[in-house]
Fold this sequence. Notes:
By secondary structure, the protein is α+β, with helices and mostly antiparallel strands. It has two domains: 9-77; 79-125, no CATH class. The chain has one helix spanning 11-77; strands at residues 80-81, 94-99, 104-108, 120-125. It has a four-stranded antiparallel sheet with strand order 1-4-2-3, with no helix packed on it. A hairpin with a 4-residue loop joins strand 2 (94-99) and strand 3 (104-108).
Amino acid sequence: MVLINIKNLTKEALIEKYNELQAEIEGLKRAIGDLRKFANEVCDKNSQLNAEARQLQGKCVCLEENLTLVQKELLKHRWIPVGESYPPDIDGIQVLLLYKDGKIQKDTTFEGGTPIWLGLTHWKPIPEAPEAKP
């Protein structure tokens, strides 16, 4: 920005220059106001987005916890390959046994026994029955 030389201007030229500068100043003030308004809107939007992000993050944590619960529950119901593990050597656990020929057998595990698992491919624990309501 360059300062103007006003020494040789007539009164009419000075008034005209004054009006031009005044109009330019008013235009700049409007532009500054618009920019401030826009900056405030951006800040408000940013605050809204941050709040929404926090809300979504909380929802995501809750969904992840639910997913973990569902995964654990599904694991209770899946057939476990004998290559992964055999039924536990603990007394009294009810299990289903799946053999190569497709036969499914209900059995009870026992501690210290020597089970014969010939042809066994998969097994799964039988879940406990729900509590009966009168």
